Amino acid sequence: MRAAAQVPSPNCDDRPEGTAVILLVVHGISLPPGEFGGPGIVELFTNRLDPAADPYYRTVANIKVSAHFLIRRDGALTQFVPCAKRAWHAGTSSWRGRADCNDFSVGVELEGTDDVPYEAAQYTMLARLARALRRRYPIAEVAGHSDVAPGRKTDPGPAFDWPRFRRLIR
Q1: What angle do CA 130, 134, 139 make, to 5 degrees?
Q2: Model pTM?
Q3: Active-site residues: which are they?
Q4: Is residue 161 packed enough to be buried (19+ CB in 10 Å), middle (13-18) or exposed (0-12)?
Q5: What is d(CA 40, CA 20) in angstroms, rounded to the nearest whole number?
Q6: Which alpha helices (H) appear in 21-144, and where do they start and end?
Q7: Which domains does the chain have, with CATH numbers?
Q8: DSSP-based helix, strand, coil % in the chain, nearest 5
Q9: Which 8-state DSSP code applies to residue 45?
Q10: pLDDT over 70 for what percent of the chain?
Q11: Residue 89: closest CA among 156, 139, 136
Q12: Which are the contacts of 135, defined by CB distance < 8 A and separation ≥ 6?
């Protein structure tokens, strides 16, 4: 997407051959937890998170994760992984009986928490991105991280307004 700043993440690999992208997974993230605007998310996705920078970082600094996109609170869009590649965003997951959602999905992180309302600019950018992705890929459904990893993940949480988002992508 042209509007996206490009920050390559090493935390990706090839999708299984012949696998179509059919799912968009919406996540919520803040680093440190509950704080917005800092470099933590980018540092995590690029394996540069300093475990000494915050006590919470010691628990996540060595994990290898990424997403295709991040949408900041102001609607700014960053792309970490090309959509043709598999980003490591969903972890142990399944959708409609199919395991390993990273294989067949695009992951979009929204800067936020489960219990703080997301910003209008984030919904606008997410809808714009979803429409662009659906023009390029046979994406049939959108799910939350909590939907593909129930019991393990809670994001984007109750603060995410699914009806609002669905109205925007019609």
Answers
A1: 100
A2: 0.97
A3: 109
A4: middle
A5: 31
A6: 40-45, 57-60, 120-136
A7: 5-29+65-168 (3.40.80.10)
A8: 25, 20, 55
A9: H
A10: 100
A11: 156
A12: none
pLDDT digits (tens, 9 = 90+) for 78-102: 999 999 999 999 999 999 999 999 9
Question: Alpha helices, DSSP H only, in the chain?
Answer: 40-45, 57-60, 120-136, 145-148, 162-168
CA–CA separation, 67 and 90 (whole Å): 9
32 close to 54: Cβ distance less than 8 angstroms: yes
DSSP 15-47: PPTT----EEEEEEE-SSTT--SSSHHHHHHTT
**Burial tier of 86 (Cβ tally within 10 Å: 0-12, 13-18, 19+):** buried
- Take residue 93 and report the two structure tokens written for it: 């997951």
CA 69: distance to chain centroid?
Answer: 6
CB-CB contact of 124 with 104 (8 Å): no
Cβ–Cβ contacts within 10 Å for residue 70, how many? 24
Cα separation, 126 vs 106, whole angstroms: 12
Residue written as token pair 């994760």: 65
